[in-house]
């Protein structure tokens, strides 16, 4: 490596360290769970997207093992050449039934589903209208396509309407939004978005990664929660959160759109098929999730309890009902300080810093799980209170 390049990159890393914003990796020596082992210690885990606690569910592990034995470890091919097994189609059909859509395509991740969605469907004459707070993968997907891209202010329906009016001369329009926004846990106004889309003849795409499995009827996500199933043209989601927490993504929706994506979506065409072990486990995850009203009820109770406790103590918590609970701070370093102090006390609650959130948006993003017991959450609240006082974050 030449000297100049090395010194540029080293300086960037030094600046991150000095500003206290450098992300450190905590290595786990245990499976994903409510308590995890990190550095030889057992800590309460408050930052996994393991909302229903299925990441290590015995039935899912068993299904994964059967998948491994029955269809092998890898397929050594992309889906369109010789990487499609019957189980891939079984899972796609299962997902279409779950979202009440025509068809579904699997991807290696939701990141890939999103980056592969826009380019095959939209050309230079077309327009994407997207929420400022959308996930990075939607933003990257939009960058990769030739359509004009206009951002509307977060959840601002009048801004969206202005952009729809202003772009009426364009050919096709697609509104792209998260169902639940990853860093704040707030929800898109899907019913209003659908009304606007129908009024101004636009399509709608929703990334429902943080709602699939935990919101709506039988966990069908924010489309079900907002009563807009059947009105959304494309939904993307991940298998890497509630649905077993491993890896994998999907795009589901109208047949004509999925048919086109199957022909032209680059991550689908140029990246390997999901391994059968994941596919078999995901089929089981959908079965478990549909029947998991008890876990969803526990998740809601846990979330309410923890949110209410933090708000009562005076932490700056973004309001909402989702198990994502963001705690904001007045100084950027405070999130790291609080996170470190919590870790020493036996709680893993990671600090989130730029570029994952914008400058000034540093936070601790708590994620509650149905696995957490009331006693564990009560104890955690006591630690938050003691540390918050010590660091003079609360009175
Ligand atoms: C809204 C949203 N979309 C997409 C992704 C990416 O999902 P995956 O891990 O399957 O790539 C995430 C994960 O952080 C997310 O929060």
Write a concise keyword list for the protein shown above.
alpha/beta, Aspartate Aminotransferase, domain 2, 2 domains, four-stranded antiparallel β-sheet, about 15% strand, binds pyridoxal-5'-phosphate
Count of separate DSSP helical elements: 14
Which range best describes the helical content: under 10%, 10-25%, 25-40%, 40-55%, 55-70% or over 70%?
A: 40-55%
CATH class of the largest domain: Alpha Beta
The CATH architecture of the largest domain would be 3-Layer(aba) Sandwich
Give the domain tally: 2
| Average of pLDDT | 96
List low-confidence stretches.
none
Shape: globular
User: What are the secondary-structure elements, in order, as H or E?
Assistant: HEEHHEHEHEHEHEHEEHHHHEEHEEEH
Spatial strand order of the main sheet: 3-9-8-7-6-4-5
Q: Give the biggest sheet.
A: 7 strands, mixed
Enter the CATH topology name of the largest domain.
Aspartate Aminotransferase, domain 2
Q: CATH homologous superfamily of the largest domain?
A: Type I PLP-dependent aspartate aminotransferase-like (Major domain)
Brief characterization of the structure:
The protein is of the alpha/beta class and 395 residues long. It is 42% helix and 15% strand. The strands form 3 sheets. A 7-stranded mixed β-sheet has the order 3-9-8-7-6-4-5, sandwiched between helices. A 4-stranded antiparallel β-sheet has the order 10-11-14-13. A 3-stranded mixed β-sheet has the order 1-2-12.
Structural description of this entry:
- By secondary structure, this protein is an alpha/beta fold.
- It has two domains: 17-52 and 292-390, Alpha-Beta Complex (Aspartate Aminotransferase, domain 1), CATH 3.90.1150; 58-290, Type I PLP-dependent aspartate aminotransferase-like (Major domain) (Aspartate Aminotransferase, domain 2, 3-Layer(aba) Sandwich), CATH 3.40.640.10.
- Helix content is 42%, strand content 15%.
- The protein contains 14 helices and 14 strands.
- The strands form three sheets. It has a seven-stranded mixed β-sheet, sandwiched between helices. It has a four-stranded antiparallel β-sheet with strand order 10-11-14-13. A three-stranded mixed β-sheet has the order 1-2-12.
- Strand 6, helix 7 (190-200) and strand 7 (203-207) form a beta-alpha-beta unit.
- The longest helix has 21 residues, at 293-313.
- The termini are far apart.
């Amino acid at each position: 490596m030449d000297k100049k390049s090395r010194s540029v990159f080293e300086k960037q890393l030094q600046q991150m360290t000095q500003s206290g914003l450098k992300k450190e990796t905590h290595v786990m020596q245990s499976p994903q769970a409510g308590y995890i082992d990190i550095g030889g210690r057992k800590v309460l885990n408050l930052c996994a997207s393991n909302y229903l606690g299925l990441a290590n569910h015995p039935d899912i592990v068993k299904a994964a093992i059967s998948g491994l034995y029955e269809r092998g470890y890898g397929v050594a091919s992309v889906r369109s050449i010789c990487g499609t097994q019957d189980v891939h189609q079984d899972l796609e059909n299962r997902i279409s039934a779950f979202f009440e859509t025509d068809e579904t395509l699997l991807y290696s991740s939701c990141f890939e589903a999103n980056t592969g969605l826009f380019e095959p469907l939209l050309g230079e004459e077309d327009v994407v209208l997207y929420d400022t707070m959308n996930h990075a993968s939607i933003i990257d997907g939009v960058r990769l396509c030739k359509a004009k891209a206009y951002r509307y202010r977060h959840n601002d329906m009048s801004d969206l309407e202005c952009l729809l009016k202003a772009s009426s001369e364009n050919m096709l329009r697609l509104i792209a939004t998260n169902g639940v926004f990853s860093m704040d846990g707030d929800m898109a106004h899907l019913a209003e978005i659908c009304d606007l889309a129908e009024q101004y003849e636009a399509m709608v795409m929703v990334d429902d990664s943080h709602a699939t499995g935990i919101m709506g009827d039988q966990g069908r996500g924010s489309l079900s929660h907002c009563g807009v199933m059947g009105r959304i043209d494309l939904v993307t989601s991940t298998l890497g959160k509630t649905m077993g927490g491993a890896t994998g993504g999907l795009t589901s929706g109208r047949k004509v759109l999925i048919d086109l994506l199957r022909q032209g979506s680059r991550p689908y065409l140029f990246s390997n098929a999901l391994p059968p072990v994941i596919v078999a486990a995901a089929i089981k995850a959908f079965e478990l999730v549909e029947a998991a009203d008890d876990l969803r009820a526990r998740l809601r109770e846990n979330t309410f309890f923890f949110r209410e406790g933090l708000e009562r103590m005076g932490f700056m918590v973004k309001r909402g009902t989702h198990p994502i609970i963001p705690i904001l701070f007045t100084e950027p370093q405070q999130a790291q300080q609080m996170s470190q102090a919590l870790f020493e006390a036996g709680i893993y609650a990671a600090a989130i810093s730029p570029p994952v959130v914008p400058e000034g948006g540093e936070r601790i993003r708590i994620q509650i799980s149905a696995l957490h017991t009331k006693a564990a959450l009560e104890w955690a609240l006591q630690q938050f209170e003691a540390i918050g006082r010590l660091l003079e974050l609360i009175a």
